[in-house]
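Aggregate trends can hide what the representation actually does to any particular protein. This step matters because it turns folding into a mapping between discrete strings. For completeness, the protein is quoted in full, as a sequence line and a line of structure tokens:
=====
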Amino acid sequence: MLKKQTRRYHHKVYFGDNVGIMTIEFIEQLGKKEIGYTKHAEKERITDKRGIIPKATREILFNPTNTLVEFYEILNTNGKPSMHIQKLVIRVHNLSDQYDYTYVIAREGFVVSNWANDKNDEHRLNHSNNMYYCPMKEASN
């Protein structure tokens, strides 16, 4: 099986104008099927140090009050963007007064990872911002 080439984006580094269209396509291609879990994600869900993480549903994940933190765009074999998202990282704010919950959802319709964050926990991008795509960085190379 060929590994899909992807480009990683973060909301604090760069999201293109087409992120809304790409997100809608991602949600629509899931269809009406229930969100599943990998064994790893289910174990994380029930053993998180902050308590059991709520099970993800389409309504929970795709609520407009959530934050799309990052996504991975599939690249075509020629290295050009395909306009299709492989994975989304979504931070859900409205399930707890104490915690936010972050879910990584694959295009195939399952959660691959999830964890709880304290409400005041703001992810800092220090050295890791080089992992994310930004056209301004590419133009300066």
Observations:
- Strands lie at 6-10, 36-37, 67-75, 81-92, 99-106, 110-118.
